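Quick log. Single chain, no ligands specified.
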Amino acid sequence: MDPLDIRIVDVLQQHGDITHAELAAHVDSTASTCLRRVRALRQAGVLKQVVYLADPAKLGRPLQAIITVTTQHLSRAGREKMAKRIRREAAISSAFGVTGEVDAVLIGNFKNMAEYQGICDRLFDADKNTVRYTTHFVSETYFENLPISCDAAAGSASLV
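-> predicted structure:
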Protein backbone atom coordinates (compact mmCIF):
# COMPACT_ATOMS: atom_id res chain seq x y z
CA MET A 1 0.00 0.00 0.00
CA ASP A 2 1.27 3.42 -0.85
CA PRO A 3 0.51 6.67 1.02
CA LEU A 4 -2.62 7.35 -1.09
CA ASP A 5 -4.04 3.89 -0.32
CA ILE A 6 -3.39 4.51 3.38
CA ARG A 7 -5.17 7.87 3.28
CA ILE A 8 -8.11 6.26 1.47
CA VAL A 9 -8.40 3.48 4.05
CA ASP A 10 -8.16 5.99 6.92
CA VAL A 11 -10.96 8.14 5.51
CA LEU A 12 -13.25 5.25 4.56
CA GLN A 13 -12.99 3.72 8.03
CA GLN A 14 -14.44 6.94 9.43
CA HIS A 15 -16.85 7.82 6.62
CA GLY A 16 -17.74 4.73 4.59
CA ASP A 17 -20.75 6.38 2.98
CA ILE A 18 -19.01 9.26 1.19
CA THR A 19 -18.93 9.51 -2.59
CA HIS A 20 -15.75 8.97 -4.56
CA ALA A 21 -15.68 12.70 -5.29
CA GLU A 22 -15.86 13.50 -1.56
CA LEU A 23 -13.19 10.88 -0.88
CA ALA A 24 -10.97 12.43 -3.54
CA ALA A 25 -11.26 15.84 -1.84
CA HIS A 26 -10.27 14.31 1.51
CA VAL A 27 -7.20 12.50 0.13
CA ASP A 28 -6.07 15.05 -2.48
CA SER A 29 -6.71 12.86 -5.52
CA THR A 30 -9.28 12.45 -8.29
CA ALA A 31 -12.59 10.62 -8.10
CA SER A 32 -11.57 8.17 -10.85
CA THR A 33 -8.31 7.37 -9.07
CA CYS A 34 -10.19 6.83 -5.80
CA LEU A 35 -12.72 4.57 -7.49
CA ARG A 36 -9.92 2.46 -9.00
CA ARG A 37 -7.99 2.35 -5.71
CA VAL A 38 -11.06 1.42 -3.63
CA ARG A 39 -11.85 -1.43 -6.04
CA ALA A 40 -8.26 -2.70 -5.76
CA LEU A 41 -8.30 -2.42 -1.96
CA ARG A 42 -11.57 -4.39 -1.83
CA GLN A 43 -10.22 -7.08 -4.17
CA ALA A 44 -7.07 -7.36 -2.04
CA GLY A 45 -9.20 -7.81 1.07
CA VAL A 46 -7.91 -4.65 2.77
CA LEU A 47 -11.41 -3.16 2.72
CA LYS A 48 -13.79 -5.91 3.79
CA GLN A 49 -17.26 -4.37 3.89
CA VAL A 50 -19.21 -1.15 4.23
CA VAL A 51 -21.49 -0.89 7.25
CA TYR A 52 -23.37 1.67 9.28
CA LEU A 53 -22.90 1.44 13.04
CA ALA A 54 -26.18 1.62 14.91
CA ASP A 55 -26.89 2.71 18.47
CA PRO A 56 -27.74 -0.54 20.32
CA ALA A 57 -30.06 1.23 22.79
CA LYS A 58 -32.09 2.77 19.96
CA LEU A 59 -32.50 -0.73 18.52
CA GLY A 60 -33.84 -2.08 21.80
CA ARG A 61 -30.59 -3.72 22.93
CA PRO A 62 -29.32 -1.43 25.70
CA LEU A 63 -27.60 -4.10 27.84
CA GLN A 64 -24.03 -4.54 26.61
CA ALA A 65 -21.87 -7.32 28.00
CA ILE A 66 -18.41 -8.76 27.55
CA ILE A 67 -18.39 -12.49 28.26
CA THR A 68 -15.30 -14.61 28.77
CA VAL A 69 -15.50 -18.39 28.34
CA THR A 70 -13.25 -21.17 29.58
CA THR A 71 -13.57 -24.64 28.09
CA GLN A 72 -12.33 -28.10 29.08
CA HIS A 73 -10.89 -29.09 25.70
CA LEU A 74 -9.65 -26.57 23.20
CA SER A 75 -9.74 -28.87 20.16
CA ARG A 76 -10.46 -27.62 16.66
CA ALA A 77 -13.76 -29.53 16.63
CA GLY A 78 -14.74 -28.01 19.98
CA ARG A 79 -13.88 -24.50 18.81
CA GLU A 80 -15.82 -24.93 15.57
CA LYS A 81 -18.86 -26.31 17.44
CA MET A 82 -18.81 -23.38 19.87
CA ALA A 83 -18.38 -20.84 17.06
CA LYS A 84 -21.33 -22.33 15.17
CA ARG A 85 -23.59 -22.04 18.24
CA ILE A 86 -22.43 -18.46 18.91
CA ARG A 87 -23.11 -17.34 15.32
CA ARG A 88 -26.78 -18.33 15.72
CA GLU A 89 -27.28 -15.78 18.52
CA ALA A 90 -28.39 -12.40 17.14
CA ALA A 91 -27.42 -10.62 20.37
CA ILE A 92 -23.74 -11.59 20.04
CA SER A 93 -22.01 -9.05 17.79
CA SER A 94 -18.40 -10.25 18.12
CA ALA A 95 -16.70 -13.43 19.26
CA PHE A 96 -12.99 -14.14 19.48
CA GLY A 97 -10.87 -17.16 20.29
CA VAL A 98 -8.11 -15.85 22.56
CA THR A 99 -4.96 -16.92 24.33
CA GLY A 100 -4.42 -16.67 28.06
CA GLU A 101 -6.59 -17.65 31.00
CA VAL A 102 -9.81 -17.84 28.99
CA ASP A 103 -10.53 -19.43 25.61
CA ALA A 104 -13.09 -17.05 24.10
CA VAL A 105 -14.35 -13.50 24.49
CA LEU A 106 -17.82 -12.52 23.30
CA ILE A 107 -19.40 -9.09 23.02
CA GLY A 108 -23.15 -8.85 23.01
CA ASN A 109 -25.98 -6.36 23.10
CA PHE A 110 -29.04 -7.74 24.87
CA LYS A 111 -32.66 -6.61 25.13
CA ASN A 112 -32.72 -7.35 28.85
CA MET A 113 -31.43 -9.73 31.52
CA ALA A 114 -33.94 -12.42 30.50
CA GLU A 115 -32.53 -12.54 26.97
CA TYR A 116 -28.97 -12.52 28.32
CA GLN A 117 -29.71 -15.43 30.67
CA GLY A 118 -31.48 -17.44 27.97
CA ILE A 119 -28.50 -17.09 25.66
CA CYS A 120 -26.10 -18.09 28.42
CA ASP A 121 -28.26 -21.12 29.20
CA ARG A 122 -28.14 -22.19 25.54
CA LEU A 123 -24.50 -21.42 24.89
CA PHE A 124 -22.81 -22.38 28.12
CA ASP A 125 -24.99 -24.18 30.65
CA ALA A 126 -26.10 -26.78 28.09
CA ASP A 127 -22.53 -27.28 26.81
CA LYS A 128 -20.51 -29.94 28.64
CA ASN A 129 -17.27 -28.48 27.27
CA THR A 130 -17.83 -25.10 28.98
CA VAL A 131 -16.12 -25.00 32.35
CA ARG A 132 -16.95 -21.41 33.25
CA TYR A 133 -18.14 -18.14 31.82
CA THR A 134 -17.84 -14.71 33.35
CA THR A 135 -19.84 -11.67 32.31
CA HIS A 136 -18.81 -8.05 32.57
CA PHE A 137 -21.73 -5.68 31.99
CA VAL A 138 -20.75 -2.36 30.44
CA SER A 139 -21.78 0.52 32.69
CA GLU A 140 -19.98 3.29 30.76
CA THR A 141 -18.19 3.62 27.45
CA TYR A 142 -15.04 5.66 27.88
CA PHE A 143 -13.76 5.12 24.37
CA GLU A 144 -14.86 3.07 21.39
CA ASN A 145 -12.88 3.22 18.18
CA LEU A 146 -13.67 0.63 15.53
CA PRO A 147 -11.36 1.81 12.72
CA ILE A 148 -7.95 0.12 12.55
CA SER A 149 -4.94 2.43 12.69
CA CYS A 150 -2.98 2.52 9.43
CA ASP A 151 0.27 3.51 11.15
CA ALA A 152 1.88 0.09 10.61
CA ALA A 153 0.95 0.12 6.91
CA ALA A 154 2.48 3.58 6.56
CA GLY A 155 5.87 2.14 7.53
CA SER A 156 5.73 -0.63 4.93
CA ALA A 157 6.05 0.01 1.21
CA SER A 158 3.88 -2.85 -0.04
CA LEU A 159 1.32 -4.67 2.12
CA VAL A 160 -1.35 -5.33 -0.53
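The CA atoms of residues 65 and 137 lie 4 Å apart.
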